[in-house]
């Protein structure tokens, strides 16, 4: 849909900037970075936005057809076809870089368990040394894909309010029962907590089939009003508090993110839609998944292996990484997408993929 790819591209770009910041300045969330770079420390919220956008995008077609899908098996096959080939290719690339260039975590190089766990996309359920710190969300999203048909059934049978309550109430109850009502999150088992933000996106997709009166609502202004209390609390309590309370911040900001998507889907505000549909932003969105998958090993290699030979640590390394790591990540992702993402995006079967490849080969002869 018009504008959604642009949003996806900008979110992926922010994640790249976040990782340039994160691995340059130690001590997260009490970072040693200059305060004026503090706006780059919220990479987690960009991933939450990805999940809201994913739920929204997947629910567009069902919303147009009475909240019915084309069948569970067909849906899961299409998701696997779209997501897994570039993910597995990025996994191989990440393993090679982690083994031979720079480890992806303080746990050291990947192990055999890493290959098994990440190869099966089970990283949200089983802990293993990561080959790529960005891969945690792929495990979460894969689990949410499995849950999607059930969420769609609840939406169709009982409506949006019941769906919101069913996925949010258990998470809120679990959070309130934690010590100090502040759950401490680990590296996995995040899908149950993030299911409500995914469902929020699904609910937001109802704007596609809503009445004209609903579609004409000022969704952009409503998004700003919904985000204002969360932003104000973050400013008052500080960025470190915000990061340490992502469990609640994720849930609180999801409605505002959903309203942003509703606004863009209805063509408002016009200046934002024009920006999102410009060729550079739309193009970035086209290979945003590849950018998300492969940027981190590149950024880490620049920061930990290349930059020390040319610049001092801290801010000089950050600027060096932006100058080298950012464009290499974008160019590398574009090339990566040409081979491992676009063919699976443009074709829905091996037969179609082979036929396209044969036709392109013949055209070059």
Plain-language structure description:
The protein is an all-alpha fold and 365 residues long. It is built from 17 helices and no strands. The protein has helices spanning 4-24, 43-64, 72-100, 112-119, 136-158, 160-177, 191-204, 212-215, 219-237, 239-244, 246-265, 270-276, 279-286, 288-306, 315-340, 342-346, 350-364. The longest helix has 29 residues, at 72-100. The two termini are 36 Å apart. 39% of the residues are buried. The mean pLDDT is 94.
Please specify the SSE layout and strand pairing.
Elements: H1 4-24, H2 43-64, H3 72-100, H4 112-119, H5 136-158, H6 160-177, H7 191-204, H8 212-215, H9 219-237, H10 239-244, H11 246-265, H12 270-276, H13 279-286, H14 288-306, H15 315-340, H16 342-346, H17 350-364
Helix pairs in contact: 1-2, 1-13, 1-14, 1-15, 2-5, 2-7, 2-11, 3-5, 3-14, 5-6, 5-7, 6-7, 7-11, 9-11, 14-15
Q: Which residues form runs of ≥5 with pLDDT under 50?
A: none
SSE arrangement, N to C? HHHHHHHHHHHHHHHHH
Please report the distance between the alpha carbons of the first and last residues. Answer: 36 Å
Q: What is the percent of helical residues?
A: over 70%
**Outline:** globular
Helix-and-strand structural type: mainly alpha
Main beta sheet strand tally, sense and closure: none
Instruction: Give the percentage of residues in beta strands.
Output: under 5%
- DSSP E strands, number: 0
Over all CA atoms, what is the radius of gyration? 21 Å
Taking all residues together, what is the mean pLDDT? Answer: 94
| Oligomeric organization of the protein chains | single chain
Number of helices: 17
């Amino acid at each position: 849909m018009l504008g959604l790819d642009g949003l996806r591209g900008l979110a992926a770009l922010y994640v790249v900037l976040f990782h340039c910041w994160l691995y340059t300045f130690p001590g997260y969330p009490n970072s040693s970075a200059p305060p004026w770079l503090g706006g780059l420390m919220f990479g987690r919220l960009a991933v939450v936005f990805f999940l809201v956008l994913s739920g929204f995008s997947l629910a567009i077609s069902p919303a147009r057809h009475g909240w019915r899908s084309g069948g569970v098996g067909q849906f899961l096959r299409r998701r696997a076809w779209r997501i897994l080939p570039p993910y597995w290719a990025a996994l191989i690339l990440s393993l090679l870089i982690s083994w031979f260039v720079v480890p992806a975590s303080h746990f050291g190089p990947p192990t055999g368990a890493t290959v098994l766990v990440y190869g099966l996309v089970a990283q949200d359920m089983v802990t293993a040394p990561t080959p790529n710190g960005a891969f945690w969300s792929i495990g979460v999203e894969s689990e949410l894909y499995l849950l999607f048909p059930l969420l769609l059934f609840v939406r169709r049978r009982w409506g949006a309010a019941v769906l919101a309550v069913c996925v949010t109430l258990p998470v809120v109850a679990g959070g309130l029962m934690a010590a100090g009502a502040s759950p401490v999150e680990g590296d996995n088992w995040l899908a149950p907590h993030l299911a409500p933000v995914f469902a929020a996106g699904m609910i937001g997709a109802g704007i596609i089939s809503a009445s004209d009166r609903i579609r004409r609502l000022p969704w952009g202004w409503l998004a700003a009003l919904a985000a204002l209390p969360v932003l104000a609390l973050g400013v008052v309590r500080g960025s470190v508090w915000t990061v340490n309370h992502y469990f609640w911040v994720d849930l609180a900001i999801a409605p505002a993110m959903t309203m942003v998507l509703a606004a863009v889907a209805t063509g408002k505000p016009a200046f934002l839609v024009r920006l999102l549909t410009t060729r550079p932003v739309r193009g970035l969105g086209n290979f945003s998944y590849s950018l998300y998958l492969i940027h981190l090993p590149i950024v880490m290699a620049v920061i930990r292996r290349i930059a020390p030979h040319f610049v001092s640590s801290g801010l000089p390394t950050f600027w060096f990484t932006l100058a080298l790591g950012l464009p290499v990540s974008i160019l590398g992702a574009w090339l990566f997408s040409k081979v491992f993402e676009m063919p699976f995006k443009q074709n829905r079967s091996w037969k179609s993929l082979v036929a396209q490849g044969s036709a392109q080969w013949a055209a070059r002869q």
